[in-house]
């Protein structure tokens, strides 16, 4: 964004208000290990977190470890994750990713961005989610549909590409805020700044948002 980047005072005001509005913002997916989180985030592509949380208990019961996923028949994986959509591609990626975790990473989900991005089905959004929520590693800002929509409406980016949006956000948001920022935006997007009918009248940012009441 460079020369047309928003002022730091504006960005800090957004961060302050969102923190107060959503003090407990966190990932909505249920998990108890890095492996379970990786599976859940992969399944969440083009699927709601609610649906994923309905599906994963059975997945984790039948396939509780990377070894179990890697050795399971692809048809079994497909059947378990079918309700999340795009199940054939997701099953293929999960099986191969777990095979790589066993073969290259000693059976553990990688802890670095460089390594985790080598896994099939893992792009930066998935990598950021897993690294931050499983290991406390802050390497970037996950950009999902809510983060993309709200970042553009707030004038924090002009880009549509998630990787470019992430770079724009990383350039203007202090690194210590990267972790919770996505989840604050996601909660705000679900509750207030909806895609079709944003509830601007109830928004804590409505007096500073350049898009308020323009829909």
TrEMBL record:
A Gene Ontology biological process term: base-excision repair, AP site formation
Pfam families listed in its UniProt record: EndIII_4Fe-2S, HHH, HhH-GPD
SUPFAM superfamilies linked: DNA-glycosylase (SSF48150)
Record note on cofactor: Binds 1 [4Fe-4S] cluster.
UniProt keyword DNA damage, yes or no: yes
PROSITE patterns assigned: ENDONUCLEASE_III_1, ENDONUCLEASE_III_2
UniProt-annotated binding residues for [4Fe-4S] cluster: 193, 200, 203, 209
Catalyzed reactions per annotation: 2'-deoxyribonucleotide-(2'-deoxyribose 5'-phosphate)-2'-deoxyribonucleotide-DNA = a 3'-end 2'-deoxyribonucleotide-(2,3-dehydro-2,3-deoxyribose 5'-phosphate)-DNA + a 5'-end 5'-phospho-2'-deoxyribonucleoside-DNA + H(+)
Top-rank EC class of the record's enzyme: lyase
Enzyme Commission numbers on file: 4.2.99.18
Cofactor(s) demanded: [4Fe-4S] cluster
Molecular function terms from GO: 4 iron, 4 sulfur cluster binding; class I DNA-(apurinic or apyrimidinic site) endonuclease activity; DNA binding; DNA N-glycosylase activity; metal ion binding
Occurrences of domain HhH-GPD (ranges): 43-191
Keywords of this entry: 4Fe-4S, DNA damage, DNA repair, DNA-binding, Endonuclease, Glycosidase, Hydrolase, Iron, Iron-sulfur, Lyase, Metal-binding, Nuclease
NCBIfam families in the record: nth
Function (record text): DNA repair enzyme that has both DNA N-glycosylase activity and AP-lyase activity. The DNA N-glycosylase activity releases various damaged pyrimidines from DNA by cleaving the N-glycosidic bond, leaving an AP (apurinic/apyrimidinic) site. The AP-lyase activity cleaves the phosphodiester bond 3' to the AP site by a beta-elimination, leaving a 3'-terminal unsaturated sugar and a product with a terminal 5'-phosphate.
Family recorded in the similarity comment: Belongs to the Nth/MutY family.
Name of protein: Endonuclease III
Organism: Dissulfuribacter thermophilus
